[in-house]
Amino acid sequence: MPTTRPFAYNTGSTISGTEQIGNLSIAQNDRDFSQNYGGVRWWMGPDEDLGYVIATDNPANDQPTEPGINPPFGDVTFWRTDVFTDLAFIQLSQVISRENGTPQTFATTDDAKTWLNSNGYWTSYVLPLSTPTPTPTQTSTPTSTPTQTPTNTVTNTPTNTATNTPTNTATNTPTQTPTNTATNTPSSTETPTPTPTNTATNTPTQTPTNTITNTPTVTPTNTETGTPTPTPTITLTPTNTNTPTPSTTPSIVTSGLVIQLDAYESSSYPGTGTTVFDITGGYDHTLIGATYTVLNGIKCFDCTTGNNRVDYNLTGPLLPNSGYTYITWARLIPSNAGFRTVLYTKGPPKITPITIPNGTNTLGYWATGFVSSGYDVSSSAGVWVQFAVVGTNSSQKFYINGSQVGSTINEGAGGTRHWGWGNNDIVVQPWGHVANMYFYNRQLNLTEITQQYNYLAPRFAEITPTPTNTSTPTVTPTTTSTPTVTPTNTLTPTPTPTPTEPFFILIQSGDILTAQDGSGIEYQH
Fold first, then answer.
1. Which of 50, 100, 216, 521 has its CA 20 to 30 Å from the CA of residue 140?
2. Taking a C-beta distance cutoff of 8 angstroms, is the pair 356, 302 a contact?
3. What domain range includes position 298?
4. pLDDT, one tens digit for every residue, the chain (525 residues)
5. 424 and 288 in a common domain
């Protein structure tokens, strides 16, 4: 059963049984939230078993919901990581900080969570406990070392004194002292004192010997044995375990970057018009048939039909013979009825560096004929994926989500010029939805391609609706005289005593969930 909880936009006081962060109420126990408990509308959050969830209020009430859902807009927004890692949580938090207009770079998850809570964001991320761990410091352990303890040792003290030592020790005192010191004190005394000295005494017998002993006796010297007294030194070293702080913050690779188009950035596409601006400057593209859309919270261009595309009308930059790299996030249409192409260059010959022939799902390249990588992209259809190619004028490698796939081919697009994205020119070969495109005039290595993926991946959390099993059973009236108890996840058309007003799930741009009627969510990527 998914782990979910209701959320509400609440500008009033804290509602009983809820937690309040900023203007966001978070349910803390089971209640019937479908009746606007506390006087606010509640929205069911995403499944917390699939990633770390972050939520906040949307006071503009303009968060789009799924088509056909009423109301069409909501006032709560959710994000979720696609994996349970500290790095994914930090990256998503940084994306949210940028959307909030106050970009942050977090060194630890503690920093990220503190910033989120301080700015009105709730998160399911729980900081690990800083348990005071007795660190194995090289403390000299209190070992029972045979130190020269202050026992009445047999000191051969040449006491040249005729000491009339009135030893008042006719004491057969078996005192319970654990040192069986055989004090056979052969002092050079002229007094044969009748002292039964085989006493198990730790006490120096009361012999007031006024002896001037200049002897280097083996006295209880505080020998530096490295054994400090056994004081339990539990040093409270607050080691924040399990907090892998990233040494460097992921970022876009900029070395060699020639073109950067990105529907996510308003500096590249402001939301209207047909011009897609090159953020690096110089190569602004034009939407030809393609339209701007927000697909489940992800800003992108629709190139799913016809030969709708994003085109550069002038002479584009050269793909050097020595090396080039294309990176694009796209959502491939599943249908293989026709060719699917996402990039094309201007020759001669015209080349499509990433293409899939009709009737297949094989990733490859086309110049004068199809050259196969041998990789089946079926699993990458219908979800957001980072596609990349790195090539020269005689070879090309293919990458998906930061990993090389298929075989290196013995042809490349080096020597041609960049032309367009999302489809083919004139020929109908729609690829699907495209969100961004980066063109480099050099070959990026695997580390750099992975860096780009790690930086951009949090924006592309994809969801599919899954039914949520709510905990309140409802009594469904049937035609029989016996009312049957059925769980609420059965969509029965019969009237039930419990309200049927649905919960909704939301997402906003980047990694944002859109509303789904009474259902949980899961990411695909």
1. 216
2. no
3. 257-443
4. 788 899 999 999 999 989 999 999 999 877 788 788 999 988 888 899 999 999 999 998 887 766 666 777 888 998 999 889 999 999 999 989 988 888 899 999 999 999 999 999 999 999 876 555 555 545 444 444 444 444 444 444 444 434 344 444 433 434 343 444 443 434 333 434 344 444 444 444 444 444 444 444 444 444 444 444 444 444 444 444 444 444 455 789 999 999 999 999 999 999 999 999 999 878 999 999 999 999 999 999 999 999 999 999 899 999 999 999 999 999 999 999 999 999 999 988 999 999 999 999 999 999 999 999 999 999 999 999 999 999 999 999 999 999 999 999 999 999 999 999 999 988 899 999 999 999 999 999 999 999 999 999 999 985 544 444 444 444 445 444 445 444 545 444 444 444 444 445 555 545 444 454 444 444 444
5. yes
Spell 105-118 as b/e; 16+ CB within 10 A means b: ebebbbbbbebbee
Same domain, 401 and 506: no
Which pTM does this prediction carry?
0.47
In a domain, 229, yes or no: no
How far, in Å, CA of 171 to CA of 358, rounded?
Answer: 112
**Residue 426: count of CB within 10 angstroms of its CB:** 10
Tally the domains of the chain: 2
Are 436 and 314 contained in the same domain?
A: yes
Q: Indicate whether 51 belongs to any domain.
A: yes
Instruction: Please check whether residue 326 is in contact with residue 388, taking contact to mean a CB–CB distance below 8 angstroms.
Output: yes
Give the integer Cα–Cα distance in Å for 252 and 5: 35
CATH classification of the domain holding 301: 2.60.120.200
199 is a domain residue? no
